[in-house]
Amino acid sequence: MRELSIGQVAREAGLSASALRYYEKAGLLPAPPRRSRQRRYSEAVFGRIYLIRLALEAGFTIGETAPSGALARPGRAQAGRS
Questions:
Q1: What is the pLDDT of residues 8-64, one digit of tens each?
Q2: Cα-flanking dihedrals φ and ψ of residue 35, to 5°?
Q3: Is residue 82 part of a domain?
Q4: pLDDT at 78
Q5: Please, which residues bridge with residue 39 across strands?
Q6: Domain holding 45: CATH number?
Q7: Half-sphere exposure of 36 toward its Cβ, with a 13 Å CA cutoff?
Q8: With 90 as the cut, is the pLDDT of residue 76 above it?
């Protein structure tokens, strides 16, 4: 699987690298593994970026988007949800 730097992901997704770091800090993107202190993303990150953009375009704020079931950490069930 191809590993991408933050700059490569930003270019391909049409975002800034600072936006990706912000999404990570806000809990929207999981922290990727690092190689030599540099973030290395898998191509799966583009699916999550798509969901983030979809939620933001629908009018949700970052704060409303982060705890949503669609963007919760993979493999973790939401409390009170089935």
A1: 999 999 999 999 999 999 989 999 999 999 999 999 999 999 999 999 999 999 888
A2: -125, 120
A3: no
A4: 43
A5: 34
A6: 1.10.1660.10
A7: 1
A8: no
Can you read off the two tokens belonging to residue 57?
């375009």
Check: CB of residue 32 under 8 Å from CB of residue 26: no
Reduced 3-state DSSP string for the chain? CCCECHHHHHHHHCCCHHHHHHHHHCCCCCCCCEECCEECECCCHHHHHHHHHHHHHCCCCHHHHCCCHHHCCCCCCCCCCC
**Residue 77 pLDDT grade (very low, low, confident, very high; cuts 50, 70, 90):** very low
> Full-prediction pTM beyond 0.90?
no
Residue 1 lies in a domain: no
